[in-house]
Amino acid sequence: MTNRPGPLDLFDLDDLVGEEERAIQQTVRDVVEQQIRPHVAQWYDEGSLPARELALELGKVGLLGMHLTGYGCAGTSATAYGLACLELEAGDSGVRSLVSVQGSLAMYAIWKHGSAEQKDEWLPRMSAGEAIGCFGLTEPDAGSDPASMRTRARRDPAPDGRGDWVLNGSKMWITNGSIADVAVVWAQTDEGIRGFVVPTDSAGFSAPEIKRKLSLRASVTSELVLDDVRLPADAVLPEVTGLKGPLSCLTEARFGIVFGSIGAARDCLESALRYSGERDIFGRKLAAFQLTQAKLADMTIELGKAMLLALHLGRLKDAGRITAAQVSLGKLNNVREAIAIARECRTILGAAGITLEHPVLRHANNLESVLTYEGTTEVHQLVVGQALTGESAFR
Fold first, then answer.
1. What 3-state DSSP class applies to 371?
2. What contacts 24+ positions apart, CB below 8 Å, involve 287-292?
3. Is the N or the C terminus of the chain less surrounded, counting Cβ atoms within 10 Å?
4. Which residues belong to any copy of the Acyl-CoA dehydrogenase/oxidase N-terminal domain (predicted)?
5. What number of CA atoms fall less than 13 Å from residue 241's CA on the CB side?
6. CATH number where 249 lies
7. pLDDT of 243
8. What is the CATH number of the domain that holds 171?
9. 378 and 276 belong to one structural domain
């Protein structure tokens, strides 16, 4: 079966991807094959990720903030960034999360809403992987409803007249938190919700790592605790006030998930194809049975439809025409289909599918988190519903 077309080859999508984008995708695939795939099962088993070393390697090939311009960033198309996310998540969702949080949340927030000084200080080092960022929005009691966050920043004028900020509160489920050099933290102020660039060596800042996870085990997940963290007046992101700031960053990250989830699903389907072509049962290959072929055909169709949707959204984004509701459509559909594919592939592998010798249950477990973060399924359903009806059902 090794000479058979891959599941996406049946759709003949080459004309929809430019040569440069295809070259970037192949470069990322090579990085995953050489530096991630040989180790990721062990990382997942141990609940660890050599994130700092990996960030430096990913920075060398220009993956961190690759869709941004200036400050050492590659300035690629949105579609190329999406294809990179696809290949990264084919390795593991945790690795793609490292890149997404670095580039589409922390770096994007500074790039889009920060001052010239903030950009100069952080973005070149972050694009090189020399500094790691995290993004503090979610709280223990404020997940899908970020407007209800309790973290607060207040002005505390210093004797020299400088208007320092003092931050108090906590954030939860923060990727990269325990290893970050800088945190973009969103807080309530008298002016509304504002973003702050917080060096993690600031007094009063701590980031205990969250352990005993059953999903995204090859990823650093943390709580952020801010206990009278004092920052200078210019620590605030000057170009945005209100929820539109963090939500614009989340839309960037969700776009990467639209593509990334396809990578996890493709890896599962390719694994199921290999296994079913090698496994002998009842005197023939498992792949020769009608029920197996029906499963493989149905999953291939859903994978191809997800890819077509992702590429269409990529072109809309490249043209500057994409909307947040369209990104929600992509995230809702593609993650939902990806996790269904991962679960179905596990049935083809049988008992072998529950081990780390194969990637399918690792991907399925990871996708349980991807299904929830950057907006739950229910949130995206309501975003699409509001676009269709003009009525908000959130409150």
1. coil
2. 287/1, 292/348
3. C
4. 19-130
5. 5
6. 1.20.140.10
7. 92
8. 2.40.110.10
9. yes
- Same domain? For 179 and 289 the reply is no
Helix/strand/coil (H/E/C) assignment for every residue in 260-294: HHHHHHHHHHHHHHHHHHHCEECCEEHHHCHHHHH
- HSE at residue 231, side-chain half, CA atoms within 13 A, is 28
Predicted local confidence at residue 248, as pLDDT: 93
Q: Can you tell me the distance from the alpha carbon of 253 to that of 257, in angstroms, rounded to the nearest whole number?
A: 7
Number of domains making up the chain: 3
Model pLDDT, residue 383 = 96
Angle between helices 290-318 and 78-91 (to 10 degrees): 150
Report if residue 334 sits inside a domain: yes
Distance, in Å, from the CA atom of 214 to the CA atom of 361, rounded to the nearest integer, reads 11
Any catalytic annotation for residue 374?
Answer: yes
- How far is residue 307's CA from residue 341's CA, in Å, rounded to a whole number? 14
Residue 1: the pLDDT is 43
Active-site pick, 223, 252, 302, 374: 374
Q: Are 66 and 128 in contact (CB under 8 A)?
A: no
Domain that holds residue 44: 9-127
Verify that 303 and 361 share a domain, yes or no: yes
- Helix (H, G, I), strand (E, B), or coil: what is residue 77? coil
**Using DSSP, how many helices (H) and how many strands (E) does the chain show?**
12, 11
